[in-house]
């Protein structure tokens, strides 16, 4: 059962990061606004940086999920 949970986790995590990467409902702007108004927020953290990082993480996560059956079989 844990294999199915890991597969589900990877799919949900990748899908949610893709939603941020494609800026669904201004998610990247909301993350940027939250972090930029905290102590230690950096000016280099722009919504574009948030979208690129989430896109890269989503790609890595979904490739890992897709290659999982190849590694185990």
TrEMBL record:
The chain crosses the membrane at residues 6-24, 44-66. Keywords: Membrane, Transmembrane, Transmembrane helix. This is Uncharacterized protein. It comes from Streptomyces ossamyceticus. The lineage of its organism: Bacteria, Bacillati, Actinomycetota, Actinomycetes, Kitasatosporales.
């Amino acid at each position: 059962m844990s294999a199915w949970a890991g597969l589900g986790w990877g799919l949900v995590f990748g899908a949610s990061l893709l939603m941020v990467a494609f800026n669904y409902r201004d998610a990247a702007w909301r993350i940027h606004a939250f972090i930029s108004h905290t102590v230690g927020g950096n000016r280099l953290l722009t919504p574009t940086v948030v979208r690129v990082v989430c896109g890269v993480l989503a790609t890595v996560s979904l490739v890992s999920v897709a290659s999982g059956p190849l590694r185990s079989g």
